[in-house]
Amino acid sequence: MGKYTQAKCRLCRREGRKLFLKGERCFTAKCPLERKGAIPPGQHGYKAARAKLNVYGQQLREKQKVKRIYGLRERQFRNLFLEAVKNPGATGIKLLQLLESRLDNVIYRLGFAPSRNAARQLVKHGHVQVNKKKVTIPSYQLRQGDVISLRKRIRENEEIKKSLEASEKRGLPVWVERKGVEGKFVRLPEREELDADIKEQLIVEFYSR
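The structure assignment produced for this chain is given below.
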């Protein structure tokens, strides 16, 4: 699957919930879900909204939803699932923990960027350091205790400042810490600390067919 280049808000409407793909816009009345409701895009959207999904359809939609939340392509997502299978413990929870410990996701969680897509750009453009070393790989897997910081040349960026201010109001997840423009990946999140709307067991069933 190539890079998605159409309106990101269509993805939220297709999945019937906010995926927070456009930063602060998702928290305002400008969000299409606030104005149009959770109706899938397209001329047959109302019909699709009323259609009852079979088991496979439910599994597929859950996989697509989570993949889009974290901004991954199919091969990346499947590889993470295969890695989760190798780890001891519940595969679904391990998958979510692997997704949460990606560098681009932690940059977003720390409030350094308004969205995961923006966080990915920060990393690719060389503005992020992990333990004082530049890292340009968004999928870099962080470990407990890793320190994440922004390089000096980007710290005064207005978008960064706005994102930090917005995150101050909403608060940070308990598994990360931040002081100024430096953050720390404290630990892997527990399942109850993650999005309760995600049904990871359906994803496990989808890939286990």
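Interim note for the steering committee: The CA atoms of residues 144 and 187 lie 5 Å apart. The chain has two domains: 8-98+196-207, 103-187.
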